[in-house]
Write a structure and sequence with these properties.
about 45% helix, two-stranded antiparallel sheet, 17 helices, TIM Barrel, alpha/beta, 12 strands, eight-stranded parallel beta barrel
Length: about 400
Amino acid sequence: MRHFGHIAPAVRKRLFYREPGEFTHDSPARLLSAALGATLYSPATRPRLADDVVKQGGRGVVSMVLCLEDSINDADVTAGEENLVRQFADLAAGPDADLPLLFIRVRVPEQIPDLARRLGPAVRLLSGFVLPKFTPERGLPFLEALTTAEAETGHRLFAMPVLESPELLYRESRVETLEGIFRAVDKYRDRVLALRLGVTDFCSSYGLRRGPDITAYDIQVVASVISDVVNMLGRADGTGFTVTGPVWEYFRVQERMFKPLLRQSPFHEVQAVALREKLIEHAMDGLLREISLDRANGLLGKTVIHPSHVLPVHALSVVSHEEYSDAQDILRPERDGGGVLRSAYTNKMNEVKPHRAWAERTLLRAEVFGVANEDIGFVELLAAGLAD
């Protein structure tokens, strides 16, 4: 599979200076963690789930979570498990296709080995499990269950813990909780693909809900948690993990309080005014703003609950030609000793040692999302994806 693989080759050639690279379910964890992109959640009870997975994979989705937790009623868990087993069997029996990376969000640790066994040979289609409300005490049994399931099936399985518990939110317990989470995930580092932020649960603890004009970073109690999670769990010194961005809840807005967040000029320049109006109508301007802030704050990828959110996440994950040029200059072997140089775009200073970690992350993102041509911006990427 590859990002933007659903777009015609001739269009990709026009858009990309370096096209997104291919990856598989068996690719190294470091590559897969960067490639997750927009991870689309779907209730495990959907009767045509296998068809949905194939359809979304054909539309550019590369990672999905099939949810047995908050997205379904407590009374439907057993039915959801049975449906998952049937749907995986259907996927395994169908024609070979570039299926997304598939994860199951469970409720309790015991579900992990149980479901892995019940999936039978179809477990080969499963990339791992999403672990809810992860804390040091609650999280370790999930990780131990994952290890058991992997040993029993002989199939590599990854974990994606969700950081959403009140202990992490509350100031008096946050540092101790983060330290405990780090010890837990560090012990199973080779199986923790990414850490996911459960911002909806954070807001719930204070009776809050952000509107379509408000990003997670505008809610200070939430922004402070994101900051501390990145500070302690997302470091670039080799100890950190990929941390993904919070879910965006909206896909259509009836009434707005504030002006749209999208400038008009980038859309006028490429004759895409109608695209701007469509994005605003569907609350995508707030989403685009939050994705930009995710990346600025060290997050990569995002949880999404609607297929229309996938393309904006992927379009804003593409590395610009300018970023790629700077990263390559910084990482040239002759720069190993450090120093300062003017960027090839002559608009900034590249300081080799402080910018090295950024450059390494940028080239990893370029490997999976590609590098845009010099004259291509996010508007052209969005327009091409929507037109396909």
